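Quick start: read one record
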Amino acid sequence: MCLSGLYSSLLNFVIMDKNQAAYRIQPIMHKWLAVPHLNNPYETFAARVLHYTLLLLLITTMTFVFFASSPAQLVFIPGVLAVFVFCYGLLHTGHLRLASLIFLSGLWLVITMASFSINGVRNAGISSYAIVIIFSAVLFANRAVMVFTGLSVLAVVILAAGETWGMLPLRTTPLYLADRLFQQIALFGAAGILLFAASRVIRTSFGRVREHEIILMERNRALETEIAERQRTEASLRVSEARYRLLFENIPIMASVYGQDGEIILMNKAAAKTLGGTPETLQGRNMRDLLAPEDAEYAIRIHEQVMAKGNGTISEGEVKLPTEREMYYLRHVMPLPDLGGNNTSQVLVLTTDLTEKREAEQRKRELATAHERNSFLTEFFGTVSHDLKTPLTIMTTSLYLLERAQTAEQSREKAMHIREQIILMDKYIQDMLTISRLEHLPLYDFQALDLNRLVEGVVDLLHPQMESKQLACQLDEQPNLPPVRGDQEQLHRLLLNLIENAVNYTPDGGQICIRTYVADRRISLEVIDSGIGIEPDAMPHIFERFFRTSNARMSQSKGTGLGLAIVKKIAEMHTASIEVSSQPDTGTTFCIRFPAETS
């Protein structure tokens, strides 16, 4: 403690000195007076002990020089001082083990030489062997302690035997007070330094052990809490697993888990019953063992796609079951996460049997179709009976008047009336047959057609009617119009009905414009007239069968009410869209957009 205080005072003195020389000395003093710090904590402790011990011995030895009273002391003390300085230099240049070895060996030799040459066992410094042994335990391993202990015991035995038998040339010297004083100072100082450093290390180690114990206790408490939480979680998971397994096994929806290449991993009761087995008998088997080859391969291919992409898929289809029953299904295939860490891809498949629902819907559709047909027939016969009754009545009246005609002019007039009604009845019959064929015609002769040429053919056919009503017809056709894919006969009928409708409901002296063009990669046909127009409340019904607007019924033109229904049906056959815009007493525009023919 005194040495430490002396060192601190010396450093403070150097720091407080403000001149330039003091600042140059400070780093050197700090290097040789500071305790070396090594990487190993124990080596740092050993270096601390050796550092303070050497400082104490150096100061004591240098002080003892002034009290030397014999020639032997004048020779012996400088030699010891040189050894201490050399060890101090080795210690501060990083050679702890070499400095320790030289220090202990030199100290042991000095004690031994002094004992064998002066006073023998009665030598006051022989007790310093204890310091050597203690320092060997601090600075080296256990083996060094045994070596120095054995050598010290052997030296004492030899000294005792030599003195007893008079074999050693010992000489007794006077007891010098300075010898005992400085020996006791060195002994007590070294012991104090050793115990001080050791107690400091012990206190530090005990504090660290206590800190580690506290940390360990906190970790144990945290671990106990974590274990308790995991136990609660595991218990909750077991309960949840039992619930979900009960739900999985007993839900009416067919649920199955499949692995690679169609392997059945897990299956609930509903799925197993549908496949004609039980979960125990079907698990571990393959889909190829239960389904038809094409059905099994299709399902396995879907499973592989879901495993590869990681996205679920929903599909509908039919499958033939092992019980020979045809089942229409809704299937949801979804990937399962890899919770086990074994990188095994699996999918969960939920299947709903829609066979009964589909059959019920089919029956419902059939009933709806039958009801629609019944309504159609009822409406058909009612309309036909009404619409045919009128021309028949006119024909009967005209025939009656024809028979009683008194002039040729009257006969021609009545015959013309009869001919008009026959043409109207023929149109009724033709339109009815057309709508019936469109409802039931299974195949069409689709080919690439020139829409401009079809329009020109229909305009030529209706040219006499346009001339009789003095209608101006304008054709605005885009050159090099892409072809339209369609049935030539049906498209001709569509154009005929649409343009004839414009002719019939346009007053005399009116205008009709027919345009063809390409817009938004679709081929468009527009028929624009300056006719009677359509009322807004009638617009949603113009494509219904037998529907005629109030303006149409009041006009002189006679129609069947099936023309626009035929147009819409043919347009739907050709995946075309129809747009209508109209203003009463102003005119109507019909626009049909066809998909272009692709090569």
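The CA atoms of residues 15 and 402 lie 149 Å apart.
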